[in-house]
Specification:
The complex is a heterodimer of chains A (572) and B (276). Chain A is an alpha/beta fold and 572 residues long. Helix content of chain A is 48%, strand content 16%. In chain B, the strands form four sheets. A five-stranded antiparallel β-sheet of chain B has the order 9-6-10-13-14. The chains are: A alpha/beta (572), B alpha+beta (276).
């Protein structure tokens, strides 16, 4: 496709503008970052040009554009004005859709948060570049409320921003770029971001662009962060958070809704540059979705995170609540259950609160079936980011009461079900190399012995230890493993629990009694689901949920002998 | 105790219920984003009084948004209409119980403004509960078991039991022709003074027979449905959306039926089935 070149003048400087695609189509304006030029958008632009009027330009100081005479010329107000100048030149009648990366994103925020910007900017997709004003407020908020979490965020982002400090020093950064970094840049990108080197990248002017671009940092960071302005915007914004971004932490966008009421959040499993240079197609798809949505009059997209979660035993109880909680935060969900109708119902409910979900009938105690399930999920939906091995059954009975068959059934579902799930999905996650998280549902019974729960407690203790071993093995692959120990939670596990040595009537009575006791305790599965989501977020290894689960764990540490004595009590 | 009403009485009860639903529909047609709960109940009250209502079993209620699912309800005072404004996409529930010549109706009307797919699903599934309750009562199951059957169905659907938030966790209560002589139109704690008199008398009278005029899941509901009229109000919720219907169930000596099938929610289900 031909690229048409033209020059637009802004503030006395010529800006090199590159156009492709049909000008009658909606205009998408791509703004590059540091130390790039318009060329960093090559893949994204080629993809979008099929059905859009795609416009890119070299920002002042870079590529084919003019160079400001002094540092003052790199101030945000000029950069924002440049964007409006290009937008006015290429699309005088209709507002444009802005897409920006890195420093391009920082300067586009300047334009987007300009009062009345929504008349010229129809939508904004931002990748890895926050508004400096918003960041100024973000820092202030955290300084004022120095909770451990806030302090950690400040520290982590401070470490990640080392280069910004380095850029403030005289001579050092320009010298490093001139002496070797410009030449080594393809290798750096390859090593740090797994970007495949290719002809034309980076641009031949890299050394010059990089040295001049340092002025962007020097001219703006200190003044803006020192006294941030209030910069809200009416423009619908799509924020693409890059999960493996080394420079912009994901938590920098916390609370962005304060400034941007129409915010759509998307997450992409990519690094700072690999997002554009390796996953251009995906970025283009997200942009296309956002532009189409805004054109249709929707200022906000449905919460879709792009992550995939698999929940076994998702037809009821904790499994259903967990599937719903994942769906609610925008994850795609696949639930499996022995009861297909129940799983389908969960998927339907997930679809009401989040993206479309899917249900499959699987018997987790059947290793081959679980393997086939994992292959099917991978083929139809991709490798999951989170797997929750939740399926389990209840069984009560002392050791001598419990028959061999009952032992087998309990171990098959509760322990082998988890083993099969970890094996099938763990292998997929390792092979993909993108990290992930495995959550195994153990139980407070895993560390709380009780003579009447011999088989059940044994199976759950196995799950707890399996999780501990697996965590060590998968840690180098960036895959977390959490074991959840819920305690007494009001679910239907009590109405399907089997009791050794009872006839059907006695069993029914015991089930009713247990169900009543659990209902009286009244701990809802939704709270367990919330803990599971938190474990995935924080990577917490072992999570006792209810008070009794926490107390038993503590007691087991303080006085194991007392716990052993309690195990003799007749319960259930 | 045998069934105390004749055809004429049932016709009068049906008329009062129609009147109540008619007023709820009028308010539903008028309601729009920006309206507060208090404005909605005032409108409902005016509408009912214009239609000849002199007294209330309880004052009209209106719940908007997550209040339809009784989220964050800690005190009974929160049932009363407040300043919550209706917004686009919000569900709402109107509940009123007019008395005309002693004939009482108690109705619940669920609606939404704009798009709300969760509400659509709930509203369609509500039909299952209307059929389930009737079938169970016809089978003369003890009332607490019917309550448990509703809970089991809620678990299958993945919904919450929201009627348990009502005082006494009730899914229903007896309705009689009030003959009390207290002042009409005067309410105490949201209930008509005459209602309180009648209900108090019933509570004591029924207690002597080991029954209760309130239908919940406890011991006091462990008896077959008493012949007479029951206002049944399954209230189901999912996340921040709640919906209910409330209408009179006629329990005769050997059968049971809904007093009237010509009601907004039943018509909606019929339309949906025809469309499908």
């Amino acid at each position: 496709m031909t690229i048409r070149r033209r020059t637009v003048h802004s503030g006395g400087l010529p800006l090199a503008v590159y156009e492709q695609g049909d000008p009658a189509r909606p205009t998408v304006l791509l703004v590059h970052g540091y130390p790039d030029t318009h060329a960093v958008w090559d893949d994204v632009a080629a993809d979008l040009a099929v059905d859009h009027h795609v416009v890119r330009y070299d920002v002042r100081g870079a590529g084919g554009s003019g160079v400001p005479a002094a540092r003052d010329g790199y101030r945000l107000e000029h950069l924002g004005a440049d964007l409006f100048a290009v937008a006015d030149a290429v699309s005088p009648d209709d507002p444009v859709h802005v897409v920006a990366h890195d420093w391009g994103s920082i300067q586009s925020w300047e334009a987007v948060t300009e009062p009345g910007a929504h008349r010229r900017i129809a939508s904004y997709t931002t990748v890895s570049g926050p508004s400096l004003d918003h960041i100024g407020h973000w820092i202030r908020h955290r300084m004022r409320r120095p909770t451990p979490r806030h302090l950690r965020q400040l520290l982590v982002q401070g470490v990640h921003s080392w280069y910004i400090t380095a850029f403030q020093l005289p001579y050092l950064a320009p010298a490093v770029w001139r002496l070797f970094l410009a030449r080594a840049w393809p290798t750096v990108l390859h090593r740090m971001e797994a970007v495949t080197p290719r002809p034309g990248h980076p641009q031949p002017t890299l050394g010059r662009d990089a040295v001049r671009g340092i002025e962007l940092y020097r001219a703006n960071f200190r003044p803006v962060l020192r006294s941030p302005r209030e910069r809200p915007t009416e423009v619908p914004v799509q924020l693409i958070t890059l999960e493996r971004d080394r420079y912009v932490s994901t938590f920098l966008s916390e609370g962005l809704e304060r400034w941007v009421p129409h915010l759509t959040r998307r997450t992409l499993d990519a690094g700072h540059w690999s997002a554009l240079l390796e996953k251009g197609g995906t970025v283009a798809r997200l942009v296309r979705e956002h532009v189409t949505r805004v054109a249709a009059g929707h200022v906000q997209g449905p919460p879709v995170s792009g992550r995939l979660a698999v929940v076994t035993g998702g037809g009821s109880g904790i499994g259903r609540a967990t599937a719903l909680a994942f769906a609610e935060q925008g994850d795609r969900v696949v639930v499996c259950d022995l009861d297909l109708a129940a799983a389908e119902r969960t998927a339907e409910l997930c679809g009401l609160v989040g993206p479309r979900a899917h249900a499959i009938r699987v018997d987790v105690s059947d290793g081959e079936a679980v393997d086939a399930f994992a292959r099917q999920v991978a083929a139809e939906h991709g490798v999951p980011d989170v797997v929750v091995n939740n399926a389990g059954i209840g069984h009560a009975g002392t050791f001598l009461q419990t028959t061999e068959k009952e032992w087998q059934r309990v171990l098959d579902v509760n322990l082998w079900g988890v083993i099969h799930g970890c094996r099938a999905f763990g292998a997929l996650m390792v092979a993909r190399g993108g990290g992930g998280h495995i959550v195994n549902l153990a139980s407070a019974a895993a560390y709380l012995p009780a003579k009447s729960l011999a088989a059940y407690a044994t199976s759950k203790a196995g799950v707890l230890m399996l999780s501990d071993c697996l965590r060590a093995e998968l840690a180098p692959h960036g895959i977390g493993v959490s074991a959840i120990c819920p305690g007494i939670v009001a679910t239907n596990i009590t109405s399907t629990t089997t009791f050794s040595g009872t006839d059907p009537d006695e069993q029914a009575a015991k089930r009713a009694k247990a169900t009543k006791a659990y209902a009286r305790r009244g701990f809802p599965p939704e709270k367990v689901a919330a803990e599971i989501l938190r474990a995935v977020r924080t990577g917490k290894p072992v999570v006792p949920v209810t008070f009794e689960a926490k107390a038993a764990r503590l007691l087991g540490r303080l006085s194991p002998a007392l716990l052993r004595r309690l195990a003799r009590l007749d319960i259930g | 105790m045998s069934f105390p009403y004749d055809e004429h009485d049932l016709a009068r009860f049906r008329e009062t219920q129609q009147l109540a639903y008619h007023c709820a529909e009028q308010v539903a047609a008028w309601i729009e984003p920006g309206v507060t709960e208090r404005q909605a109940t005032a409108k409902l009250r005016r509408c009912l009084e214009r239609a000849g209502v002199q007294d209330y079993f309880h004052v009209p209620f209106a719940w908007f948004g997550d209040r339809t699912a009784f989220r964050h309800f800690h005190t009974p005072l929160q049932f009363f209409a407040g300043g919550r404004r209706l917004e686009e996409g919000m569900p709402y529930v109107l509940d009123c119980a007019p008395v005309v010549d002693g004939y009482t109706a108690d109705i619940g009307y669920g609606g939404k403004v704009g798009e709300n797919p969760v509400w659509d699903r709930l509203a369609a599934d509500l039909k299952v509960y209307r059929e389930l309750i009737l079938a169970e009562v016809r089978a003369r199951k003890p009332l607490n078991e019917v309550y448990a059957a509703v809970d089991a169905q809620l678990a299958v659907h993945g919904y919450d039991n929201r009627h348990r938030v009502y005082p006494g966790r009730v899914i229903g209560h007896r309705v009689t022709r009030t003959t009390a002589r207290g002042p009409a139109g005067v309410t105490l704690f949201g209930f008509g003074v005459r209602t309180l008199q009648t209900l108090g008398r019933e509570l004591i009278g029924e207690r002597l027979h080991g029954r209760s005029p309130l239908w919940a899941d406890g011991r006091s509901s462990r008896h077959a449905p008493t012949p007479g009229l029951w206002a049944v109000e399954p209230h189901i919720g999912f996340r921040d959306v709640g919906i209910k219907f409330e209408e009179l169930l006629v329990v005769t000596d050997d059968d049971a039926f809904w007093l009237d099938d010509d009601l907004p929610h039943v018509r909606r289900w019929t339309l949906q089935e025809e469309a499908a």
